[in-house]
Amino acid sequence: MQIQDLPYADPGVPDARSGPRFLWWLGRNQLGGQAKALAWGLLHFASVSALPFCVGIAIQAVIDRSGRHLALAGLLLLLACVGNALGDTFLHRAAVTNWITGAARVQQLLARKAALLGSALTRRVAAGEVVAVSTGDVEKIGWFVEAVSRFTAAAVTIVLVCVALVIYQPALGLVVAVGLPVLALAVLPLLPRATRRADFQREKAGRATELASDTVAGLRVLRGIGGEELFLDRYRRASQEVRHAAVRSARMWSLISAIQVLLPGLLMITVVWYGVHLARQGRITVGELVTVYSSVMVLTYPLRHFEEIAMAYSFSRPSAQRAARVLSLERTVQVGGSRDVGLLSGDLYDPVTGLLAPEGLFTAVVCGDPDAAGRLAERLGGHAGEAVAPDDAVSELREPDAREAGVGPAAEGTASQDAAADQEDGASVLLGGVPLDAVPIGSARAAVLVQDKDPVLLSGTLRELLDVPASGAVSAEAALTAAQCDDVLAALVEGSLDAADPMDARITERGRSLSGGQRQRLALARSLITDPEVLVLDEPTSAVDSHTEARIAAGLKGLRAGRTTVVFTSSPLLLDQAERVVLVHRGEVAAVGAHRALVRSDPRYRAVVTRETESETAPRGVDDETALRGVLEEIEETA
């Protein structure tokens, strides 16, 4: 696999049972690249290790006054230099390719998992955790994948050189052969502590990243309530904790590096002292002594790769463990089957609540609990299957959030209750009598589009934002008009220096330069363009004024005429445009009818829509009925 061939057509099915198994799986899927890097690494390290032998032959040739041996030494030296240059160049290319392709494979796996789980992912894993896994952890995993082949080449070279030294000069060769393994294994007792400190630093950095993300996302609100400095102080404290953790981690790794410098120096001193002793006795020649000494000095270079692989594995193992936990998350229901159902259409029915949205009608759903409305909206889109993992994995993933919020067992109990409630949903939503969980998830999502109450706008131009998979029946102009985006387009042009056409105006990350209502309307226009068989909207007008809301309600009804539309709302303006209104109370359908009829006949519906208190929901007299008719007339005039 070459960099220009990325992305992978299929990144494969990972072994996510543990971090080491995941790393092993990555290595097995890159055998070609690892073999290429190993071959170039052997050429590079062998050429470097051959230099002392060439120098030893040259020195002995000068002592013996042998021109033939001196010429041979020069030729060998030339070959070693050429091999060193070629090996080093192509080893670097092959190793970096392994790094990038390995990291790209992990990123593709994470992206595929995020697309499969949808909003369920951030319920099981904190958003900051997902960002940390897909950025910093991916780099550490790629580092280990890249370092394996170089370490293997270095280890093989050291073994070969030790064997060659024992054959070339047994007395000194044995000293080197015994000393080098000691050098390689000397730092092993320090690795667990270094790993723990690195993990602690990474945990602190993840929390600081999440805090910074939340602060930036809510900066406008924080400034409005005067809480900007408060959150900045929190971030300063969090960054200082990261700095202290990084310093403690760096101290441990600097100690390991110091040992890797000190011990080879002691070995060289031992070799020189013993070699001089042997040379005085006439048991070795000067050339042999120079060869062995130079070999030990040169071997400190491949020996450094033992430290690197230890660092790479220490950093990548917890990163791989976190990535494996995310990749092991599954949905509670079986999705993605092979059943071929063609184009899904028909009535949308939820057997759990009894909610029915007839085909081709504009159905409005009223829930007293906004959270319950959001969960029901997700169920209607086939997103109700939450991600699940082994109990220990879920607890580990949730633990940082619980600690950061300052809660303990109570929070864990709440998390368990939430997970249990998610799994109680059971039966799948039916579209045209077909369970959404029984069809490929791509087909289900193509048939039913859910826009939640907090839609995300990605950075880019408005043209790119609206460039989404669509039926082609709804133009961008029609969608923008129905969503009442005229003032949004004007604001985008005014805020762009070089965009005369609103479609070429740039939208900042998450649309932070726009107001909440403007973001909401652009998201609605994007959903309308797709023209799905079923469109589910959760509070699509909660951030706009009443006059704009009335026009949006009329535009939505006109544009979606003949198409199934489900809107979760408590706004009388939207409810008055609906062809069918459903009241969901305590998880079940409690009433069905027209908006005006339900306001008159159902006190529970009236309490939600008009925000009445319990005392106000008492039986009404003649005056109350007259007032109610006045309210309905006012709604009609506004619409």
UniProtKB/TrEMBL annotation:
GO MF, one term, reads:
ATP hydrolysis activity
Which residue ranges does UniProt annotate as crossing the membrane?
A: 37-63, 69-87, 147-168, 174-192, 253-276
Compositional bias annotation for Basic and acidic residues? 395-404
Could you tell me which PANTHER family the record lists for this protein? ATP-BINDING CASSETTE SUB-FAMILY B MEMBER 10, MITOCHONDRIAL, ATP-DEPENDENT PERMEASE MDL1, MITOCHONDRIAL
**InterPro entries named in the record:** ABC1_TM_dom, ABC1_TM_sf, ABC_transporter-like_ATP-bd, ABC_transporter-like_CS, P-loop_NTPase, Type_1_exporter
Q: What is its main location?
A: membrane
The topology of this chain with respect to the membrane is: Multi-pass membrane protein
Q: Which UniProt keywords apply?
A: ATP-binding, Membrane, Nucleotide-binding, Transmembrane, Transmembrane helix
**Where found in the cell?**
Cell membrane
List every stretch annotated Disordered: 387-423
Q: Name one Pfam family in it.
A: ABC_tran
List residues of the ABC transmembrane type-1 domain. 37-306
Identify the species of origin.
Streptomyces griseoviridis
What are the GO cellular component annotations?
plasma membrane
Q: What CDD domains does the record tag this protein with?
A: ABC_6TM_exporters (cd07346)
Gene3D superfamilies for the chain: ABC transporter type 1, transmembrane domain, P-loop containing nucleotide triphosphate hydrolases
| ABC transporter domain segment(s) | 374-611
Q: What is this protein called?
A: ABC transporter ATP-binding protein
